[in-house]
Specification:
With 367 residues, the protein is α+β, with helices and mostly antiparallel strands. It folds into 2 domains: 156 residues, Roll (SH3 type barrels); 134 residues, no CATH class. Helices cover 16% and strands 27% of the residues. The chain contains 6 helices and 18 strands. The strands form 4 sheets. Strands 7-6-5-4-8 form a 5-stranded antiparallel sheet, with no helix packed on it. It is elongated.
Length: 367
């Protein structure tokens, strides 16, 4: 019995600590929301807790083999470039925006070194459901409860002459139809006249910020013809993430960053903001974009990376030249043509396949 009481024979608890690798730790930790008000926030990044990566082949990836997995982001230093806000798709801020994008989100394919051009060309993009901002003033999608703009005789306006051509003119007559509709006769400064509804008239003065919201019908001045104004949908309000600019999708799917002095608000907003859009790929994209806002899907590419984008009905190879917040500038290999494209556009081969896969999985998830 004395032997059983011997301290050397009694069991003692022992704690063994094992150091986990960084990948395992990040997988165990719950996702943390990005602090959008932080001074270290990247102006060109799109933050999210959920990432999706296609396969290694950037041209023909198998989109069915990957699932969304949590991924913790590292903050990047805020870009210091100051670009003219009035210019369309400004290039001067692109390089700085790209440098923040690289450190903001990175996959195993693209984290091994930016100097290796071969790996940059072969890397597949990350597709994220991006949290655009945390401030409700930056994500406002509902039309503000404000009185409608008054439309009167002799009022200087911007009115629709053709689908993609609005011009300056003056209201010379207001016609009340028997069915309650109101039409406005406009004489244009450059000759000609037209009978239009309030949905096709904009004040010739810039709106106030509190009048604007994502999904509003707006006009911008054409960069090629100062007498012509182009219609579109407001897609982003000013925030740190877009360097305090407005993103507008023109009705021909062209994405444009502008400042407030370049923006004009259409007087009578339709109940369906897409009512003026022609049925087709752009309308389908805008339906998806507005439905998912403020969590739009975005791809992350690096400068020099090769990808495929739809051009004239065919997916063609091109190279990323620069990135500017939600947009990127690409050069097509075949003809050297340059184009600005939204990083969530359905013209991107990876994005169209990803959304097709997502739609096919949604009914299964419901079941």
């Amino acid at each position: 019995m004395d032997d059983l009481n011997d301290e050397n024979l009694q069991k003692k608890p022992v704690v063994i600590l094992t150091r986990l690798d960084e990948f395992t730790l990040s997988a165990l930790q719950p996702p943390t929301p990005q602090q959008f008000d932080s001074e270290a926030d990247s102006a060109g990044s799109s933050d999210s807790d959920m990432l999706w990566e296609p396969g290694d082949d950037s041209g023909d990836s198998n989109f069915g083999g990957k699932k969304k997995t949590p991924h913790k982001h590292k903050k990047a230093n805020e870009a210091k470039a100051h670009s003219p806000l009035v210019s369309i798709n400004n290039n001067s801020a692109s390089n700085n925006s790209h440098s923040t994008n690289n450190s903001s989100v990175c996959s195993n394919d693209c984290s091994s070194g930016s100097n290796n051009t071969n790996k940059v060309g072969e890397a597949s993009p990350i597709i994220v459901s991006a949290v655009f901002a945390s401030n409700s003033n930056e994500t406002r999608k509902v039309r503000p409860d404000l009185p409608e703009v008054e439309i009167g005789l002799d009022m200087e306006v911007l009115a629709r002459r053709r689908i993609m051509r609005w011009q300056q003119g003056k209201i010379v007559e207001i016609i009340n139809k028997d069915d309650g509709r109101v039409k406005y006769k406009v004489i244009f400064n450059e000759k000609g006249k037209s009978l239009v509804s309030g949905h096709h008239i904009a004040k010739k003065t810039n709106p106030k910020l509190d009048q604007l919201y994502v999904g509003a019908r707006v006009l911008i001045q054409s960069p090629e013809d100062e007498q012509c104004f182009l219609p579109g949908l407001l897609a982003e309000l000013p925030s740190r993430k877009n360097r305090l600019r407005f993103l507008v999708f023109l009705d021909d799917h062209t994405p444009v960053y502008v400042s407030l002095p370049s923006l004009y608000l259409i007087c009578r907003q339709m109940e369906d903001p897409l009512g003026d859009l022609v049925d087709g790929p752009h309308k389908l994209f805008m339906e998806h974009y507005l439905r998912s806002w403020p969590y739009p899907h975005l791809t992350h590419y690096k400068e020099g990376q090769i990808l495929k984008i739809e051009l004239n009905g065919v997916h063609q190879k091109c190279q990323v030249e620069s990135v500017d917040c939600s947009l990127m500038k690409v050069v097509f290999e075949e003809n050297g043509e340059m184009d600005w494209i939204h990083r969530g556009s359905l013209r991107l081969e990876h994005m169209s396949k990803f959304l097709e896969l997502k739609q096919n999985q949604e009914p299964k998830a419901d079941n």
